[in-house]
Here is the input.
Amino acid sequence: MGSKTKGTIAEREILHLFWKNSWACIRVAGSGSMKYPCPDLLAGNNIRKLAIECKAINDDKKYLSKSEVSDLIEFSRKFGAEPWIAVKFIGKGWYFLNPEDMQINNATISISLEEAKKKGLSFDELIQNG
Here is the structure.
């Protein structure tokens, strides 16, 4: 399965989780392929708005470019949403991370499964206060 297909499946999985928990959620067409900063998902209710960048990997570490993260932060600031990075470690579950909690190394930002377990939130923890 290609990474694009894996990513689409992951995005849809989160989208359904939000709707099942009485939140609204949409996938953003063209995310990652336009000149403007754009998250993969927008989710919200009458209390909170979330801009989410989704990643699904078969490994124990995910690398993101600084621009992926800075674009998410920029969009979120302009839109008035909370920025979140959702990482699915295949077979080990979802972790939702605030970009500020991610380790920055030169041009890349990495998140390991171990770090995600310490700093990340589960889906239920993410939506708990809203």
User: Anything to note?
Assistant: Strands lie at 24-27, 41-44, 49-57, 61-65, 82-89, 93-97, 103-105, 108-112. The chain has a mean pLDDT of 89.
